Amino acid sequence: MKALKIPEATVQRLSIYSRFLERLDKKGVITVSSGEIARGVGVSPAQVRKDLAYFGEFGTRGVGYNVKDLIHYILKILGLTKSWPVVLVGAGNLGTALTAYKGFADRGFKIVGVFDNDLLKIGKRIQDLEVMPLEKIPAVVAEHDVKIGIIAVPIGAVQNIASILVDAGVEALLTFGPVVLDVPEHVVVRNVDLAVKLEILTFNLVFRDLQSVL
Amino acid sequence: MKALKIPEATVQRLSIYSRFLERLDKKGVITVSSGEIARGVGVSPAQVRKDLAYFGEFGTRGVGYNVKDLIHYILKILGLTKSWPVVLVGAGNLGTALTAYKGFADRGFKIVGVFDNDLLKIGKRIQDLEVMPLEKIPAVVAEHDVKIGIIAVPIGAVQNIASILVDAGVEALLTFGPVVLDVPEHVVVRNVDLAVKLEILTFNLVFRDLQSVL
Fold first, then answer.
1. Tell me, what CATH number does B41's domain have?
2. What was the pLDDT predicted at A151?
3. What are phi and psi of B156, to 5 degrees?
4. Is the pLDDT of residue B5 over 60?
5. CA A125 to CA A123: how far, in whole Å?
6. Residues A166, A103 share a domain
7. ipTM of the complex in this document
8. Which end of chain B is more exposed for a tag (fewer CB within 10 A), N or C?
9. A172–B80: do the CB atoms touch at under 8 Å?
10. What is the pLDDT of residue A57?
């Protein structure tokens, strides 16, 4: 496969298309048009065609895309034809909510270890996992060959935890809240800032009479 | 102002630019170039210029943008020159984490009511808020003129809560997890699907040797 330069917004939409396509597949739908995908997920048909075009010629004019093939291809692009072990640091409210998050297992993400430095939390069970001290991170990461870490600790502790995870061999980090991390070049970091999501709401509330957002 | 058609990805980046600009402002920085913004937030300078160009001519060639002006303008676009009262439904782990989320107050979002239908939770205090029964939603929404609701309840209950909020007058909803809502046309819904964020990580892990993502 030749080197691709795919905008992150496209990657995010592919992830969303694949969920819609899986719902169609469960209903027994065999083929789908870009217009149907567009309506299903709320973007324009042109956007769907452009996003899928990053991966070469798909679909048959007038017939559309084969649903199963398209799902498989998108999952392959997203790296989801295998399952991914994940470690979670932080067993507070957010961490506890994340261990119960239904959306992870559906997509092949399995939390294999939960860690905290709070003696009151260590040893407690969350779902079917026992909270472990931070010292166990390297052993668990090595044992399961974990590449992905989720950091759900107070803002002030995030950088320290990131460094521990990276030293243990984790190469991709998901963080929460307004943090800026200093990590080596090879480490992928993405952040969930929930205020950004609220700002998309306020933008739409303020501007919806003036425009239609893509 | 003429009708704008701004891609949602741009809105999201504006939100992120404004955070970076606020950090610069705190350091006493007066002007900034698109290149500096780009490096600060990890996108290309062309992307920054394109995003800001949606709002007409800004900045002075060779001098750059005035930091304070740019912050003010972006906040105005995002609807953040006022503060927004928010109601939160669901006082479980996720809801509790959200009430403590530092990023909201910084951006003018104030949670004015937390609701749950669990008798064991009603009456408990989370931060400085007492958890109220769902029946109180209409009164609180009316009293504070709330337009934004955050839904942090189990997937199966999300649609019902959305309907209650919309009936009470809420016009923008933030949901979590893989849900699809049926709400009236005028209601703005955005969803945080944390698995999508993990998929952006796996995409990058799988493809980073083959390409550089924007």
1. 1.10.10.10
2. 97
3. -65, -20
4. yes
5. 6
6. yes
7. 0.85
8. N
9. no
10. 66
Answer yes or no: is pLDDT of B168 > 90. yes
Residues B192, B94, single domain; the answer is yes
Instruction: Please check whether residues B123 and B29 belong to one and the same domain.
Output: no
pTM confidence score: 0.83
pLDDT greater than 80 at residue A76: yes
d(CA A130, CA A206): 46
Question: Which positions ≥6 away from B135 have C-beta within 8 Å?
Answer: none
| Residue pointed to by tokens 């668990």 | A140
Give pLDDT tens digits for B39-65.
888 788 888 988 888 876 666 666 789
CB contact under 8 Å between B214 and A77, yes or no, is: no
Q: Between A97, A150, A203, which is nearest B97 by CB?
A: A97
Closest partner CB to A190 (pick from B12, B86, B201): B201
Domain with A60 in it: 8-76
Same domain? For A146 and A188 the reply is yes
The yes-or-no verdict on residue B71 having pLDDT over 80 is yes
Asked whether residue A201 is domain-assigned, the answer is no
Calculate ∠ Cα A111-A193-A46, nearest 5°.
95
Asked if B106 and B54 sit in the same domain, the reply is no
Structural domain count of chain A: 2
Tokens for B102, please give them: 């530092």
Size of interface A-B (CB pairs under 8 A): 214
Determine the Cα–Cα distance for residues B116 and B161; give it in Å rounded to an integer. 10
What is the distance in angstroms between the Cα of B171 and the nearest Cα belonging to chain A?
Answer: 8
Is residue A174 within a helix (H) or strand (E), and if so which, with residue range? strand A172-176
Which of A155, A198, A214 has the CB atom closest to B7's CB atom? Answer: A214
Q: Are residues A88 and A192 in the same domain?
A: yes
pLDDT in tens, B12-33: 889 989 999 999 999 999 999 9
> Which of the listed residues A23, A57, A76 is the one where a domain comes to its end?
A76
Residues A58 and A122 in one domain: no
The letter for the amino acid at B118 is D
